[in-house]
Target: Phage integrase family protein
Amino acid sequence: MILQGAGVEHLHDLRETCFRQKRPLFVTYDGSKPHPRYVSYLWERVLGTGNHAARTKLHDEFARLGSRGVELAMRACGQRSEKTAEAYRTRAFQMLSINRGHTDMIGEITQEEWEAFF
Model:
């Protein structure tokens, strides 16, 4: 969808061209303006699920950056709803808290305990 048949080594140049021409990243092959759900439609055809799966993955990855990550993911996904942002901030906090808890617990396990129990 993005590379339009070009090799992955051209991704940077294609991205720069989009910015320079103020062209949408996703376009149709015939040059017509795609409908608002075009990207999700193509994902569904190829992967069997809409682009919501990629949006969730993007939010999960950016969540590691905390509130700033939520802001970046919201922009990347074209989302503006404060309700959505709050839901992702809450999810990011939960993920970071769980990771922190796991890290703290692992730090308390001795090498002998690792060998004996894990």
About this structure: The chain has a mean pLDDT of 85. The chain has two domains: 1-34, 38-108. The helical segments are 11-21, 38-47, 52-62, 67-77, 82-107, 111-117.
